[in-house]
Structure formats: C-alpha cells, structure tokens
C-alpha cells in the first residue's frame, strides 16, 4: 500500500472509529516528515517536535469534527505550518536549517577519484539552494523531497498554483546554472537532466496537479 493510501486509511479509522492504534500508526508514519517541514520555520528540532505533537493532540481531541477532510496529509501540514508560524512570531526569528545531502546512492556509484568533484558539486548545490528565498526553498523541498503535487503545496502554503510553478522554475533555473559550471561531471549531467524534466513538467502544468 502506498504511503498516501496508508495515511488516508489510518485517518479514516481515527476520525470515524476513534481507533487509537491507527492514530499511533498515523503519527509514526508522518512524524519525521512533518518535523522536517516544521524546521523550515523554526530551525529548532525540539520546538518542531513539540509543534508536531501538538498537532496530533489536537487531531485526537477534535477527531469527530474532521470527518470532512479529504486530504489528511495536506490538512495536517497546514496545521503544522500555522503552529510553526505562531511559534516564529513569538520568538521573533527565523533561520533555515541546511538542506540534507541526499545523494549517497548516486555518489556510491562512482569511483573514489571523483569524490572531490562530487563534494564540490554538492557543496555548490547546497549553497545555491540555501540562497533561495524562504518561500522558494520551502516549495522546492516539498516538491523535490516530499514528492508533493503543486496543487497540494499551493493549498498548504495558501498560495496560487501559478506561484508554485514560478518558484520551482526559479529554483531549478538557479540549480541549472550550477550544473552548467560542472558540465564534465557525470553527476551534474544526471541532475541537470532531472532539472530539465521538472521544468518541462511545469511548462506542461497538467502533470503537476
């Protein structure tokens, strides 16, 4: 069963049947991703963990009022975002955490003598992503890392789908510039091809809904 289907199944068992076992499974299935998303607003792991826990506490106490929710993951992410923004307002600061380096599988496939080039490339990628405006970076991570559709991201962040498309295109254009400087790298070629595919997807639009 796919992750999204699991979430929907557990959600229905929680809101319609008050199934505590399903509630625990839903929490464990989504907790890590929600904390990671929350840290885009708080930069504080402990605060993010507390915020996500609060969201689930609210879910349990108000479960009977949530039977109308059709996309539980989007709904919960909106709740996390709102609580995170409230936390940020109270603490009057915002600091983004560095993006995780998620290229182990790609890196393992190449020879040791390419390690220096790979490290330089990914360092430049991290730098490029880190320099993106906050909203652009959050959108990029939701689509790239969490595999969310543009429509879902738009709903979570309360923005238009057109804005999501524009911000992803902006991010990919910047990353493409980094790739161009590393044209001799096999990894750069792979990532550049992926970037081009994403940009094509945005131009077609329909595949992102």
From TrEMBL:
<dbReference type="InterPro" id="IPR007627">
    <property type="entry name" value="RNA_pol_sigma70_r2"/>
</dbReference>
<keyword id="KW-0804">Transcription</keyword>
<dbReference type="Pfam" id="PF04542">
    <property type="entry name" value="Sigma70_r2"/>
</dbReference>
<dbReference type="GO" id="GO:0006352">
    <property type="term" value="P:DNA-templated transcription initiation"/>
</dbReference>
<feature type="domain" description="RNA polymerase sigma factor 70 region 4 type 2">
    <location>
        <begin position="123"/>
        <end position="175"/>
    </location>
</feature>
<dbReference type="InterPro" id="IPR036388">
    <property type="entry name" value="WH-like_DNA-bd_sf"/>
</dbReference>
<dbReference type="InterPro" id="IPR013325">
    <property type="entry name" value="RNA_pol_sigma_r2"/>
</dbReference>
<dbReference type="InterPro" id="IPR039425">
    <property type="entry name" value="RNA_pol_sigma-70-like"/>
</dbReference>
<dbReference type="InterPro" id="IPR014327">
    <property type="entry name" value="RNA_pol_sigma70_bacteroid"/>
</dbReference>
<comment type="similarity">
    <text>Belongs to the sigma-70 factor family. ECF subfamily.</text>
</comment>
<keyword id="KW-0805">Transcription regulation</keyword>
<dbReference type="Pfam" id="PF08281">
    <property type="entry name" value="Sigma70_r4_2"/>
</dbReference>
<protein>
    <submittedName>
        <fullName>RNA polymerase sigma-70 factor, Bacteroides expansion family 1</fullName>
    </submittedName>
</protein>
<dbReference type="InterPro" id="IPR014284">
    <property type="entry name" value="RNA_pol_sigma-70_dom"/>
</dbReference>
<dbReference type="InterPro" id="IPR013324">
    <property type="entry name" value="RNA_pol_sigma_r3/r4-like"/>
</dbReference>
<dbReference type="GO" id="GO:0016987">
    <property type="term" value="F:sigma factor activity"/>
</dbReference>
<dbReference type="InterPro" id="IPR013249">
    <property type="entry name" value="RNA_pol_sigma70_r4_t2"/>
</dbReference>
<dbReference type="GO" id="GO:0003677">
    <property type="term" value="F:DNA binding"/>
</dbReference>
<keyword id="KW-0731">Sigma factor</keyword>
<feature type="domain" description="RNA polymerase sigma-70 region 2">
    <location>
        <begin position="35"/>
        <end position="92"/>
    </location>
</feature>
